[in-house]
């Protein structure tokens, strides 16, 4: 049986910060797991280095489930994004090792492929509706079948989710947290015209998605969902904060627009009520923040019982290690819905060489043994950590508001 003999945490910043756990067995097989927690990266790195790694050395690398239970149930302080991101890194690295020892791509160990590829959606944005629609046209020409559309809000100086450049926005910014102004009234007036213009330009064969970023009350979200119904959105994401899961029952009463939520969830308990009461249509929990492949499979299985599909988070704050893990997961489960895909920078792709590829609106993880992704240690060392934060929001009168 392979024993873990080495473990190290690599923090690198090829344009943005990533935290990677690298495990090595006594027969020289390596596995990598992503531990990135956007804006709180060093908290997870410390959790791994100071508390988890000492417990890993000498453990049987094949005992993935037992190791997961050891790190979760064996800890008095359970759950939370720091703990679950650390557990996820260990879990994914162990799956990587197991698949390499088997000589198979990971999805084969998860039951094999349920589909030929993984439908993905990209992000189109602009300061104006016209810029957003033109950006979306470009993605449609590249073969994307699903596009998230976000536009600047007239009357607000900046809008989260709108790229400062023409490629893709970076969720975190270096330095102290930037402050964005917010007006719900102005926002609610801006979204229906965006969807009307996008439908006219792109037709009905391209899926359109939208992210609210948790900023509406349930009744406001119900109103927006109803206003968007004629344009048949694929989903309305993160309509309101999900701490109170009953909020989504009120939204359901007012709109048939599909609802997606969960990228900040870190366990099955965060989404249990939403799933069991069928208050959402897509669960967006991700490999790295929801305890790895082992735990995310449990969430997907519960969702499948209630006719809810997956739509995993996949922004640039997740490294190519998580993207590869997500694709193996997506390919293998029966209730896959869609996968978010924000392309990484060339610098990030060089640090994390990978086998996954895009074609005709879909990604495939490739057929290399394991995850099909690695980390270039020498190149990673050239990009030291740089502190960065997600922005905060204040209403126009200065009141602190939801992220």
Give a quick rundown of the structure:
With 403 residues, the protein is α/β, with parallel strands linked by helices. It has helices at residues 41-56, 64-72, 81-102, 106-109, 129-141, 184-202, 218-228, 247-252, 272-276, 292-305, 320-332, 346-351, 377-380; strands at 4-12, 18-25, 30-34, 118-126, 146-151, 173-174, 179-182, 207-211, 235-237, 259-261, 282-283, 309-310, 339-340, 357-359, 362-364, 388-389, 392-395, 400-401. Helix 5 (129-141) links the parallel strand 4 and strand 5 (146-151).
Whole-angstrom Rg: 21 Å
- In the CATH hierarchy, what is the architecture of the largest domain at level 2? Alpha-Beta Barrel
CA(first)-CA(last) distance: 47 Å
Structural class by helix and strand composition: alpha/beta
Low-confidence runs of at least 5 consecutive residues: none
**CATH class of the largest domain, please?**
Alpha Beta
CATH superfamily of the largest domain: Enolase-like C-terminal domain
The backbone outline, from C-alpha atoms, is globular
Helicity level: 25-40%
Tally of DSSP β-strands: 18
Sheet of most strands:
10 strands, mixed
CATH topology of the largest domain: TIM Barrel
């Amino acid at each position: 049986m392979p024993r873990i003999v080495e473990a190290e945490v690599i923090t690198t910043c090829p344009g943005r910060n990533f935290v990677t756990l690298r495990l090595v067995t006594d027969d020289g097989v390596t596995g990598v797991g992503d531990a990135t927690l956007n804006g709180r990266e060093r908290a997870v790195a410390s959790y791994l280095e100071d508390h988890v790694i000492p417990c890993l050395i000498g453990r049987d690398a094949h005992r993935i489930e037992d190791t997961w239970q050891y790190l979760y149930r064996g800890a008095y302080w359970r759950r939370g994004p720091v703990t679950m991101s650390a557990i996820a890194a260990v879990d994914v690295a162990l799956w990587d090792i197991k698949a390499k020892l088997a000589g198979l791509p990971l999805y084969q160990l998860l039951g094999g492929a349920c589909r030929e590829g993984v439908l993905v959606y990209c992000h189109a944005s602009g300061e104006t509706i016209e810029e957003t629609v033109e950006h979306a046209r470009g993605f449609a020409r590249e073969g994307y079948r699903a596009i998230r559309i976000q536009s600047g809000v007239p009357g607000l100086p900046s809008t989260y989710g709108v790229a400062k450049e023409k490629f893709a926005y970076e969720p975190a910014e270096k330095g102290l947290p930037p402050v964005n102004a917010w007006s719900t009234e102005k926002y609610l007036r801006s979204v229906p015209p965006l969807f009307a213009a996008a439908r006219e330009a792109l037709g009905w064969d391209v899926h359109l998605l939208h992210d609210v970023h948790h900023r509406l009350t349930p009744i406001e979200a119900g109103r927006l969902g109803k206003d968007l119904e004629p344009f048949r959105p694929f989903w309305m994401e993160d309509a309101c904060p999900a701490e109170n899961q009953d909020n989504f029952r009120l939204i359901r009463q007012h709109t048939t627009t599909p609802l997606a939520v969960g990228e900040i969830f870190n366990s099955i308990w965060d989404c249990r009520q939403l799933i069991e009461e069928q208050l959402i249509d897509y669960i967006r929990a991700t490999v790295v923040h929801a305890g790895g492949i082992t735990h995310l499979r449990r969430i997907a299985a519960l969702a499948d019982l209630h006719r809810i599909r997956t739509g995993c988070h996949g922004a640039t704050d997740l490294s190519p290690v998580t993207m590869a893990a997500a694709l193996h997961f997506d390919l293998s489960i029966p209730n896959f819905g869609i996968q978010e895909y924000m392309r990484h920078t060339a610098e990030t792709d060089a640090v994390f060489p990978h086998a996954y590829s895009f074609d005709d609106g879909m990604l495939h993880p490739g057929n290399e043994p394991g995850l099909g992704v690695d980390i270039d240690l020498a190149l990673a060392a050239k990009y030291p950590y740089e502190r960065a934060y997600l922005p905060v929001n204040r209403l126009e009168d200065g009141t602190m508001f939801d992220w």
